[in-house]
């Protein structure tokens, strides 16, 4: 048998083996490593067959349920980095295992521009106009915290041009009106990162609990409440897990990158606060998964809910702060709750529109309002452009 014949036979056997494994191995509807739902066996329907959607679902099914998929995902990540690209699936690899998303789906008036690292100027200006409008209409003191992306905060960790990030931040700041109270949160975090502080996770897009503390400090200063800020020494950092692998780790396929430490900053009175999520009581500031389950950022405030409230169990009268937020506010809430009763409204909700900041603040009896929104969401959604 000639060598080329042997190669063809072995290749065919390889394909047959993987086809059999694909059919007999158990299939999962969710990937814990990639933190996303996987395509399962599609339902055959005449309508989906005609539209071509069935073919797409079959392709996704095979790609998502491919035997030993996690191993191959890691292999691809290693090959991309070894080839000198410095990124995989839009995730940059930087010093000390710092990861950041550099490519994203940029929202525009004419639809999204997929997989780009460039900002659409008209979209950014429309978002700024929404912020300016909401600040002008506000009936209570309102502060905006636009948390920087990891690629903005940890720019020095990467061999990647920083001009797009720097230009976006400068344009965003210059587009905000003088009456908008918006601390330079990206600049604050970048300064602390440069000083060696872990203010953003290496493997995830959120700020760490330390980063959230700096957000709390800036918000309190902006509200004119600097004297009431609790110092870091008023809290006791508690490491919850040393095995936190976040969204960047899941998307980047760089499985050799070490996990993060996830911690909470505890106080003896943590149990004095009642927390409800969409009307149902929770365990408090922190909801722990079942024993043996992975602990993630969902620890804070039980993850994503449309309406979360925090108040003292003793019913003490306190000013009410309405927080218009994305998930960054979840780890910020335990700090703010020491001073305010909180109502947190999810700006990414699929069931309710909270973009009328003025009307919603009045509806929930706000004494003050705070917007906590990452610049990543500003770039990839039209939410900020709809503020009023």
* Proportion of beta-strand residues: 15-25%
Structural class: alpha+beta
Could you say how many structural domains there are in total?
A: 2
Gyration radius from CA atoms, angstroms: 23 Å
Calculate the mean pLDDT score and round it: 87
- Residue share in helix: 25-40%
Query: How are helices and strands ordered from N to C?
Result: HEEHHHEEEEEHEHHHHEHEEEEEHEHEH
Main pleated-sheet profile: 7 strands, mixed
Give the strand order of the largest sheet, numbering strands 1, 2, ... along the chain: 8-16-14-15-13-11-12
Overall geometric form: globular
Query: Can you count the beta strands?
Result: 16
Total of helices = 13
List low-pLDDT spans: none
State the end-to-end distance: 76 Å
Describe the structure.
This protein has 388 residues and is α+β, with helices and mostly antiparallel strands. It has two domains: 3-67, no CATH class; 119-240 and 266-386, no CATH class. The protein is 36% helix and 19% strand. The protein is built from 13 helices and 16 strands. It has helices spanning 3-24, 46-51, 53-64, 69-82, 121-137, 150-153, 163-175, 185-194, 209-222, 247-252, 328-336, 357-363, 375-380, and strands at 30-31, 36-37, 87-88, 91-93, 99-101, 104-106, 113-116, 142-147, 236-244, 260-266, 273-277, 280-281, 307-312, 320-325, 341-346, 368-374. The strands form five sheets. Strands 8-16-14-15-13-11-12 form a seven-stranded mixed beta sheet. Strands 3-4-5 form a three-stranded antiparallel beta sheet. The protein has a two-stranded antiparallel ribbon with strand order 1-2. Helix 5 runs parallel beside helix 7 and helix 9 (209-222) packs across helix 11. 36% of the residues are buried.
């Amino acid at each position: 048998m000639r060598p080329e014949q042997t190669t063809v036979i072995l290749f065919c056997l390889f394909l047959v083996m993987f086809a059999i494994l694909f059919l007999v191995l158990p299939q999962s509807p969710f990937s814990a490593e990639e933190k996303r739902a996987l395509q399962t066996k599609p339902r055959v329907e005449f309508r989906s067959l005609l539209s071509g959607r069935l073919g797409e679902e079959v392709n996704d099914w095979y790609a998502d349920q491919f035997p030993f998929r996690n191993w191959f995902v890691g292999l691809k990540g290693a090959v991309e980095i070894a080839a000198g690209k410095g990124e995989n699936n839009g995730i940059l690899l930087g010093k000390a295992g710092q990861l950041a998303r550099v490519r994203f789906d940029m929202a525009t008036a004419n639809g999204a521009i997929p997989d780009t690292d460039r900002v659409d100027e008209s979209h950014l200006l429309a978002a700024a106009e929404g912020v300016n409008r909401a600040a002008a209409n506000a009936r209570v003191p309102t502060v905006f915290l636009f948390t920087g992306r990891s690629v903005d905060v940890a720019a020095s960790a990467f061999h990647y041009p920083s001009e797009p990030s720097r230009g976006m931040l400068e344009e965003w700041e210059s587009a905000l009106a003088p009456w908008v109270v918006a601390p330079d949160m990206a600049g604050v975090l970048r300064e602390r990162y440069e000083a060696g502080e872990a203010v953003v996770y290496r493997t995830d897009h959120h700020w760490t609990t330390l980063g959230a503390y700096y957000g709390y400090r800036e918000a309190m200063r902006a509200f004119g409440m600097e004297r009431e800020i609790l110092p870091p020494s008023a809290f006791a950092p508690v490491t919850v897990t040393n095995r936190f692998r976040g969204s960047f780790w899941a998307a980047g396929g760089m499985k050799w990158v070490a996990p993060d430490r996830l911690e909470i900053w505890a106080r003896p009175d943590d149990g004095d606060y009642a927390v409800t999520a969409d009307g149902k009581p929770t365990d408090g500031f922190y909801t722990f998964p079942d024993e043996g389950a992975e602990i993630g950022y969902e620890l804070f405030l039980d993850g994503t809910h449309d309406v979360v409230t925090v108040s003292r169990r003793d019913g003490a009268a306190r000013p009410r702060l309405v927080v218009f937020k994305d998930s960054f506010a979840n780890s910020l809430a335990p700090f703010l709750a020491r001073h305010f009763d909180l109502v947190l409204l999810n700006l990414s909700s699929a069931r309710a529109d909270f973009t009328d900041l003025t009307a919603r603040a009045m509806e929930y009896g706000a004494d003050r309002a705070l917007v906590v929104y990452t610049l990543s969401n500003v770039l990839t959604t039209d939410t900020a452009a709809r503020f009023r």
